[in-house]
Amino acid sequence: MRKKLLTVVLFSLFVVLAVAPASYAKIILKCGTSTQPTHIYNLAAEHFGKIVAEKTGGEIEVQVFPASQLGSERDMVEGLQLGSLEMTLTSTGPMGNFVPQVKLFNLPFLFKDRESCYRVLDGEIGTQIADRFVKVGIRSLGWYENGFRNITNSKVAVNRPEDMKGIKIRVMEDDVFILTMKSLGASPLPMAFGELYTALEQKTVDAQENPLAVIHSSRFFEVQKYLAMTGHFYSPAVMLISEMTWQTLSPEHQKIIADAATQARDYERGLSLKADQELEAACAKEGMTVTHPDKAPFAKAVAAVYKNPSVIKAIGGGDAKAGQKLIDAALAAAK
Ligand code: EAX
Hints:
Blueprint: H1 2-24, E1 27-32, H2 40-55, E2 60-65, H3 73-82, E3 87-91, H4 114-122, H5 124-131, E4 138-148, E5 150-153, E6 168-171, H6 175-183, E7 187-190, H7 196-201, E8 207-210, H8 212-217, E9 226-228, E10 234-242, H9 243-248, H10 251-285, E11 289-291, H11 295-302, H12 309-315, H13 320-334
Parallel strand pairs: 1-2, 1-3, 6-7, 9-11
Antiparallel strand pairs: 3-10, 4-10, 5-8, 5-9
Helix pairs in contact: 2-10, 12-13
This protein binds (2R,3R)-2,3,4-trihydroxybutanoic acid.
């Protein structure tokens, strides 16, 4: 009897040990974003996770944490460097603090249209800048899209740059955004995205600027009356993975993740285009007054940002000549 019991126990132990490695091998990749669950970043991150789960037979699970639950965009990138977070899909807002050359993409009216954006981002310039991330402990899995940014505010219908005078506007945390809004005569206040809705609600700021996909999913129409389709910045996004995490993955898993990220990028760009086609009317339906200002006077007002010595130097990573070269190359490629 005892012998039989022992056999059963040993057999059970064998079964547990045989099965255990598979369950222990499961890899969880947490991916944080700043935006609301229905926003295109999160739909794309879920799509990415689905492909990865399928291709790895469930060995890798991507868990998406929207709405700044894991911190601001800057906090999350720092988390990737420390290895406390595996992935994030972020705007370029905070990225200039990690790789200054990214500030290039923050210049106003740099790109003509989406084709021009993709040509620069997916081409040599975008690839070279993305390659720099690895040196600071993060790895780019591709340029996604936040979108063309438009201005909303609670005070006035904006038709000309002059209408921006004295308007307190929240901007992302980078001096290029601050200088751009100053050159329009507005009073910019840098702030993390997670604090923005409350700041608009409590009137700490009058205005903000974001792509339609963000404006609509964050329900800014509840606290902002006016929407001006200025398209002043094209805001790229970037899918990032912690380099520490990346180095623990097998080459097979790395390939699956890289390919899935490219597929999800194309999916996300499609969603972003659709958002731009549909959400202006949706915002109007929610009660916003929409204006379509002539962009030329805005572009003229912000042209000074391109001549700003500290911006040029920063874009060159501390080298003004390199900065000017990069700006010229981007302008030529974006044409
Ligand atoms: O990345 O901070 C911002 O306004 C960004 O556009 C937003 O968080 C999406």
